[in-house]
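**User:** Once you have settled down, spend some time on the protein underneath, comparing sequence with structure tokens, and judge whether sequence predicts the tokens.
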Amino acid sequence: MVDYPNYLLDKLAVDFDEVKICVETGTFEGNGAIAFSSFFESVRTVELSKDLYNTCCEKHKGNDKVTFYQGASTDRLEEMVKDIQQPYFLFLDSHHSGGLTVWDKAYGPLGSPVLQELDCVKENPPAWIVIDDLSDFDNSKIALDNRKSIVKVFGGEMLYPGRREIVDKVAEVGDYESPQAISVEDSNHPNDGKPQWFCFKLKDIR
């Protein structure tokens, strides 16, 4: 199985002497945040589910490099980044994915707040923006039809944007290099061969 996030960070060649802070949306059980803390000096992560947030705070209370936040990412993200005065790495993974995860009623079970999250960081653009689960951002007819059938049952908005919308929104945040789409290369991973991460690097990392 791919050693995430080591695999991703290695592919991107992130300079940890330059980028020392990671901000994550979509904590889930905290394993990603804890893994990121092995590479970054500090990690800030936000989770919508109160139950998952409480579990993470208890489970990972010995790790003082990670700060947990609870609430909708679109409500907390601007606050989480406003005092950062150095380059930081932004990892966006805030969406419903089954199991113990919950979804924001504004977006429904197949919606994503990623465009609104990007709006939240316009005043303090990150050095890196990485959007997880890239294959979900598919505006093909089949994908849209599948979402429509689920939205009829669960409600919410069909707000999973396409890649072009994401690229346009990132351009509003700052001057970034052309995006990289990084795939998982692991036959044991369910997304083997599929694009997993959409990655943007700021041209002028201060």
In short: The first strand starts at residue 21 and ends at 25. The chain has seven helices and seven strands. The CA atoms of residues 111 and 158 lie 5 Å apart.
